[in-house]
Amino acid sequence: MPTYRPPIEDGLFLLNDVLQIQKFNNLPGFEDATPDMIAAIAEEAGKIAQDVLQPLNAVGDLEGCTWHADHTVTAPKGFKEAYDLYSQSGWGALPFPEEYGGQGLPLAINVAVQEYIASANMAFSMYPGLTSGAAAALIEHASEEQKQAYVPKMLSGEWSGTMNLTEPHCGTDLGMMRTKAVAQDDGTFKISGQKIWISAGEHDLSDNIIHLVLARIEGAPDGVDGISLFIAPKFLLDGDGNPDQRNGMTCGSLEHKMGINGNATCVMNYEEATGYLVGQPNRGLKAMFVMMNEARLAVGVQGLAQSEVAYQNAADWARDRLQGRSISGTKYPDQKADPIIVHPDIRRILMTIRAFNEGARALAFWTSLKADISHRSDDEQERQDALDFMGLITPVIKGVITDKGFDNTVMAQQVFGGTGYTTEQGVEQFVRDARIAMIYEGANGIQALDLVGRKLPSKGGRAVQAYFKEVGKFCSAHKDDQEMADYIAPLSKSLSDLQAATMWLVQNGMSNPDNAGAASTDYMHLFGLVALGHMWGLMVVAAKEKLAGGDEGSKQFLENKLLTGKFFMERLIPESATHLARIQTGCDTMMAMDAEAF
Amino acid sequence: MPTYRPPIEDGLFLLNDVLQIQKFNNLPGFEDATPDMIAAIAEEAGKIAQDVLQPLNAVGDLEGCTWHADHTVTAPKGFKEAYDLYSQSGWGALPFPEEYGGQGLPLAINVAVQEYIASANMAFSMYPGLTSGAAAALIEHASEEQKQAYVPKMLSGEWSGTMNLTEPHCGTDLGMMRTKAVAQDDGTFKISGQKIWISAGEHDLSDNIIHLVLARIEGAPDGVDGISLFIAPKFLLDGDGNPDQRNGMTCGSLEHKMGINGNATCVMNYEEATGYLVGQPNRGLKAMFVMMNEARLAVGVQGLAQSEVAYQNAADWARDRLQGRSISGTKYPDQKADPIIVHPDIRRILMTIRAFNEGARALAFWTSLKADISHRSDDEQERQDALDFMGLITPVIKGVITDKGFDNTVMAQQVFGGTGYTTEQGVEQFVRDARIAMIYEGANGIQALDLVGRKLPSKGGRAVQAYFKEVGKFCSAHKDDQEMADYIAPLSKSLSDLQAATMWLVQNGMSNPDNAGAASTDYMHLFGLVALGHMWGLMVVAAKEKLAGGDEGSKQFLENKLLTGKFFMERLIPESATHLARIQTGCDTMMAMDAEAF
After folding, report:
1. Most CB atoms closer than 10 Å: which of A282, A460, A499, B495?
2. Catalytic residues of A
3. Given an 8 Å threshold on Cβ–Cβ distance, is B578 in contact with A575?
4. Within an 8 Å CB–CB cutoff, is residue B574 touching chain A?
5. What is the DSSP letter of A470?
6. What residues have CB less than 8 Å from A348, skipping those under 6 apart?
7. Does B257 touch chain A (CB under 8 A)?
8. Is A470 left (phi over 0), alpha (psi -120 to 50) or beta?
9. Per-residue pLDDT for chain A (598 aa), expressed as one digit of tens each?
10. Could you tell me where the DSSP H helices lie in A416-460?
11. Is B521–A348 a contact, with Cβ atoms under 8 angstroms apart?
12. Quick check: ipTM above 0.85?
């Protein structure tokens, strides 16, 4: 059975040495984020992940959720107890404002917690994950009265949350939405329609479920400009704010899925359910999109999380499994065979995953810090710059980390040979679970299109220009340092590939938007290589500084960091040239064939 | 639910126009292979695949096989009837010698049949597939008496076959094998030990199961030089050659797996089972390896087969699913939305899979023709050249087509968005089933090592030099043809990358074998790009010639072939540069870290 060890040392290195979050103690909430405090949080979160949630991962997969004839759903055995422990320990409240019961801590710390939970049990992590997303949306868009009524109970975990967007005939294209909302005399609405793939839509973990529902108010315009956002609690609240009368939505059935079986993926039928409008009418989609930056970051972290736990188990297996002999000569003559970690091709797999994971973790932490700045800085320019960066990097994080994270689980599975294909071994679950992250919260093709079609041209390309300047400045600052040559030369090359691709898009995407579409996925992955390469540059600089400081306790960790970064530069970042070559071939060939001929 | 249409037109184009197998009518069995005959075979095989086997694919996945307390196993509902129909139609006998009840037809035709069956129902295809593999081993290595006793009933499907290699502690490293064989006075052996992952090890489809078992004769040398091959039938034969007394092996349990649930993957316990030695003692592994070339080709075809059926279903969905509008302007104003096939990124996915599939199919057919020549030519040089090529290309076919075939099923699943993650839709089964092909018959890392460590240096590099000469000659012959420039320039570039990589291996792999190991997987994939690129070159030439001949009926097919080939050259083959760059970084970084640090 798989095991899991939270990568605490790496997280602390990122927060303390790379991001140096102590420097941001002018931001509210950061003053408490001392190294000791951060370490204590990481260790406590790691403990619940490792000891409580990970052992339930296979249980959730094998048992799944159960739908009952009365339309109730029970989560897998043990989930309720784990959920209560998780909630009571305050993990659901960590990064939220104190005025609604949150702890006000930085998102940059919360992202570590998110990773541990999602590594240990991705299906479980979605229950509190959806609640956090819904709470964040309410904090951003709801009235003060609505916030006070719902948010504190959601942060405490007593109530959970969902997001209801998809309908059978519309997923990506929400403009086709049919669920309708009819205004009532008392200011509420009656919501009717069917929503599908509603994660955590019905279950027995919490006392109430706060559904956020997109619907079209009767008479609203067609398309995306006629969609509004509503709160529709499973139980309507009584005068004291406690769950009371059952509202008019039920779970019609559970989806049977490839993975994340421990999470209830519901078909939700709304029949004149009472809903409360959030924000302005017809502005619902915009409200949802603001929330999505952080939700997409969280999904990117799921990709990293599955990649990390798959890596750890593959590394353990590679150290233990005796099979064959090293091709460069027997390494363990006293054993019947060498452990397979002596084989370069096994190390190639492990190093590929590791170099990706550590880069992706840095990018997720870095971006979370930008999110903190965008929410908490008192400098408008700083807030704006952080928002620009977040908008730009969000599709990259979601698309690239989940694509490659999935690939990594497949590679990790390969280390196990036939054993990895068996259910008993358990690593195949990581592959099945990781697969969904490429699809939900906007399929990765949509992320790529969001990047090239919306984020790049936004405000005259302000965000991407600022980003190129930042990475370029980093390269320039270290270009004469011989000790950095192994890192800076490949990063500079990749940056110039990305700049060439961007220029190509500017020149060819306007004249024919299909050129931008044809380039989008390759462009997103090329961007990802540069973004991870930049993170590796920062990590290497921080590691070298710390090594120079003579920190003996972390010497081995830091030297491995340098090696892993070198591997990234040797083996991963060179793919940028292929992406550029593909992008520059344009759309003509792929668009030429008749649809019927496919 | 998924559907399947056998790609008959493509197969006939390959056999008649690209390979021009009519030119080989000097080979035994080829005289019957007229275009009409080939078309009739393809259509009949396509029919059973489409109408009988494909509808059972989801049944097999959901129901799986059932192990009973008396150690018997039943296959999923409908498999027995389908198996009888398949066998009675003679599909199991197609390429085998007539003297043992075969039909003597070319392997190059059989490979088309194999693809259809494996696309329709991979788990089912393994029952007759294992039988064919076992029969081929017997024809090559068994005594005439053994052949007469077993092979005809295996080809007719009355009896089925298995291969018993793996044990719990040894998969790749068969030298550690513990199953023992004790010689008896009557010349037979008593076999005892445990074998695992035995596909089709026990089931209710056939009247007898002929197990081929590797075991160590008491007193034989340690390691791979002490392993012998045995026939151990489930039922021993009576004096008339009919199944009689139950032999001493039982199925202890079935593995629970990620996929291919319709095939019984058995733990087989041998307790003094009667076995008959095949060939010479201690030469068992060599006998198995001879058989493996064709078995590995068949597994490569499974990768293609899953990629093809996934492609077809993704293309159908992309044509039908209305969602959003084309970014270059609405294409279907009379509909609520455009079908998603208008989007370049969807076409990028479909064209990527298609360009791979058609190239892989050509390579599988081409290699099968070489196998035919190696078996049937009366020219020793021709036979030898064909064997050289087969040895070289087999790990490429197995490794590359199953790796990319799997990736393609994942990409095809992505086209479906959330629907593709549900069991009901069915495309996720292709991903789970395709996954095993990367693992069994030698994990793909072993294929890569076989290529660089054994096949490349074999006989002073004779095979690879001949291959480079052949592809180089093709490039030279067309390099001045302007109409071929889009194809020849990228192929030549990729060939020169492969040659540079080979030179690097020669120079660096001898001094440190870990450099070869570190390069192996990238080298295999680089080789695959050249091999597929060469096939595309041949297909394009054949298509242009046929177009010039004014064949109106196939004009659209041929023009799509040119487009698809162009896409291959624009988007797939350029990856060769990245593989070369990775190879040339060597093994130092990946070997530097302590095993404990992973």
Report:
1. B495
2. 441
3. yes
4. yes
5. H
6. A571, B518, B521, B590
7. yes
8. alpha
9. 899 999 999 999 999 999 999 999 999 999 988 999 999 999 999 999 999 999 999 999 999 999 999 999 999 999 999 999 999 999 999 999 999 999 999 999 999 999 999 999 999 999 999 999 999 999 999 999 999 999 999 999 999 999 999 999 888 888 899 999 999 999 999 999 999 999 999 999 999 999 999 999 999 999 999 999 999 999 999 999 999 999 999 999 999 999 999 999 999 999 999 999 999 999 998 888 767 777 899 999 999 999 999 999 999 999 999 999 999 999 999 999 999 999 999 999 999 999 999 999 999 999 999 999 999 999 999 999 999 999 999 999 999 999 999 999 999 999 999 999 999 999 999 999 999 999 999 999 999 999 999 999 999 999 999 999 999 999 999 999 999 999 999 999 999 999 999 999 999 998 999 999 999 999 999 999 999 999 999 999 999 999 999 988 899 999 999 999 999 999 999 999 999 999 999 999 999 999 999 9
10. 427-437, 444-449
11. yes
12. yes
Residue B187 CB neighbours (<10 A): 8
Half-sphere exposure (Cβ direction) of B429: Cα atoms closer than 13 Å = 28
- DSSP-based three-state secondary structure for B349: helix
Q: Which positions of B are catalytic?
A: 441
Which residues of chain A from 462 to 521 reach within 8 Å of chain B, CB to CB? 512-518, 520-521
Phi/psi of residue B256, nearest 5 degrees: -90, 125
Q: Which residues contact A431 (CB under 8 A, 6 or more apart)?
A: A259, A310, A406, A409, A410, A413, B258, B435
Shortest distance between the Cα of A375 and any Cα of chain B, in A, equals: 32
CB contacts < 8 A, A to B, total: 254
Residue entry with tokens 């690239």: A400
Identify any residues that bridge with B209 across adjacent strands, giving them in sequence order: B160
DSSP conformation class of B257: B
Q: Which residues of B touch A169 (CB under 8 A)?
A: 322
